[in-house]
Design brief:
The chain has helices spanning about 1-35, 40-75, 80-90, 120-125, 205-215, 255-285, 285-290, 295-310, 320, 345-365, 370-375, 380-390, and strands at about 100-105, 110-115, 140-145, 145-155, 160-170, 180-185, 195, 220, 230-235, 240-250. The protein is α+β, with helices and mostly antiparallel strands. Helix 8 (about 295-310) packs antiparallel against helix 10 (about 345-365). Helix content is about 50%, strand content about 15%. The chain is elongated and about 95 Å long. The protein contains 12 helices and 10 strands. The chain starts with a helix and ends with a helix. The longest helix is centred in the first third of the chain and has 35 residues, at about 1-35. Strands 1, 2, 3, 4, 5 and 6 form a 6-stranded antiparallel sheet that branches. Strands 7-10-9-8 form a 4-stranded antiparallel sheet.
């Protein structure tokens, strides 16, 4: 009895604390977002510039890695025997999904290759601007269909051409489980980013003048608010040649306010759900539950229904919107008010149905004389009956 009382005594403060946390988060969702957007423009511009610097570092590291692979392939000397050349290609330890290397003969024809490569033969003999390899490594960007590929080409002493490739982007018109878009940027840097690559054969003099005029940074301020909404900057080779331009977009003040409000509402829903769970435990541990009073059953039914209703808006709030647990693409089927529209909704709805079945079983079966004399506690027997009832015949 002492243990039961101490347990109920510990439950009450926990229940009050979670309820207070839910109320506090709900109140903050109304008051705090407006305060959080003070100084929004300065923070937004700082964030955009920090993201731009991170993208430039990522691209510079990728270019240096490609140059190191070219050096490993051609220094101190590139072998003349084809079998030794192919052994050199294999020693590069290429990521064959996004990297490749190739050898062109003195006649500019593709002879050896490994990994993801492009055939540059037509570009050596094509119309101006034709590709002119030299002893000095040349970094270019080549577009082929949906792929944008960085290529480093080098002419050896024997007039052969060595090329190292690195996929930068792949944007198929149609996507599937086997065909997905790709970007050289890590996921953390892709939010609000749009990159336009330029093939080395394109005339980009207009962009050269544009970035020279803006000192490689252009701030866009669309709309009447005058907020900094986007930042545009170029990606260049070490020689200063333009390969692409990157546009970064920032949230508006209203979008930032909405995201903050959704995060706080999400926290409020979780705290309220925890409070309802504790309330269920509190009700179950009361003597009225063991006496199977109808009022207790109705109270538990109300708490279970409130818990499921409370979880309905979770999938529509920002923190859960991008989660696979709340994604209809993973699993879901049509039902009343999105009760089964995602894996998490299906689980919660089934859990509610199971809990209701157990509750109905516990309060429906009368207590028999056999239960009074059985060594198994009556609550355990009723729970077992509830499980069998929920499982079906």
């Amino acid at each position: 009895m002492k243990r039961s009382r101490s347990g109920r005594g510990a439950l009450r403060p926990a229940l009050l604390a979670t309820a207070a946390a839910a109320a506090m988060c709900g109140l903050l969702s109304v008051l705090l977002p407006g305060l959080m957007t003070a100084g929004h423009e300065e923070r937004s511009l700082k964030k955009l510039r920090s993201q731009a610097a991170a993208i430039q570092r990522e691209f510079a590291a990728l270019a240096r890695a490609a140059e190191r692979k070219l050096d490993a392939l051609t220094l101190p000397a590139f072998p003349s025997a084809p079998e030794l050349q192919f052994a050199k290609l294999k020693d590069l330890a290429l990521d064959l999904d996004v990297e490749g290397a190739a050898v062109y003969g003195t006649d500019r024809r593709l002879r050896l290759w490994l990994g993801r490569v492009l055939n540059l033969e037509d570009m050596f003999f094509g119309p101006s601007p034709a590709l002119t390899p030299s002893a000095r490594p040349k970094m270019i960007l080549v577009r082929e269909k949906a792929s944008d590929v960085l290529a480093l080409i080098h002419q050896t002493e024997t007039q052969e051409i060595v090329a190292v490739y690195r996929l930068l982007a792949f944007n198929p018109e149609w996507q599937s489980s086997h065909l997905r878009e790709y970007s050289f940027l890590p996921t953390r840097l892709r939010l609000g980013v749009r990159i336009s690559f330029w093939d080395f054969r394109e005339n980009i003099s207009v962009f050269e003048r544009f970035f020279a005029l803006n000192k490689d940074e252009h701030l866009g301020r669309p709309g009447r608010s005058g907020e900094v909404r986007n930042l545009t900057f170029p990606l260049r080779t070490q020689e200063g040649r333009l390969l692409a331009h990157v546009s970064l977009s920032s949230r508006t003040r209203a979008a930032t306010r909405l995201a903050a409000r959704e995060s706080l509402l999400f926290a409020a829903c979780l705290a309220a759900a925890a409070a309802l769970l504790l309330l269920m435990v509190f009700i179950v541990r009361r003597p009225a539950f063991r006496e199977k009073r109808r009022g207790t059953a109705l109270a538990l039914l109300a708490v279970l229904a409130a818990l499921r209703i409370l979880c309905l808006p979770l999938s529509r709030l920002g923190p859960a919107r991008n989660s696979r647990l709340f994604s209809p693409a993973q699993a879901g089927f049509i039902s009343l008010d999105r009760l089964t529209s995602s894996p998490a909704d299906i689980f919660l709805t089934c859990l509610l149905g199971f809990a209701l079945a157990v509750l109905i079983a516990l309060f429906s079966f009368p207590k028999t004389a056999g239960e009074r004399t059985s060594g198994l506690p009556s609550r355990g027997r009723r729970a077992a009956a509830g499980l069998l009832f929920a499982a079906g015949p």
